[in-house]
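Problem 12. The chain below contains 172 residues. Write out its predicted structure in token notation.
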Amino acid sequence: MGFMAVEQQEATRFTPGPETARLMREALGRFVTGVTVVTAPTPQGPIGITANSFTSVSLDPALVLWCPARASRRFAHFDGAEHFAIHVLGADQLDLARQFAAGAGGFEADQHSPEGIPLLPGTLARFDCALHAAHDGGDHSIVVGRVLRAELRAGAPLVFSGGDYGQFSSGL
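Solution.
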């Protein structure tokens, strides 16, 4: 097993702050993430939002987290949600990612959890959660969910890096 040679370029060093916000965003964009859609029930109906700020926290108890942006028009619905679902998208679900990234995030849900969480069918994995904790995270909130139920299927993930969607390709 070998490694591909990668040409190194000179690094750009900076101190994070308002004047270097774009550089900070570019540096964070170097990290490849998966793509999720988080859904929650609201009095006005189901709501969803595309997010890549998702990670596992603990296996026992089963905890996951995601981070909604305070500037989002949908923030209030997710910051106070007692229940939500995190759907991990497959490489074949780019349209779904774009749909929930683009606008209001409202949709018709055909399936719901026992807690009333709107569910999206056919995703690679889904975590039905109850709110465990919420923390201040600067211009985001850190929302920790206790996983009530999970489901998964086989398939390649949709990924996000450098401001664009893509697919995972193995075989370095």
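Discussion. The radius of gyration is 17 Å. Students who got a different answer should revisit the alignment rule from Section 12.3.
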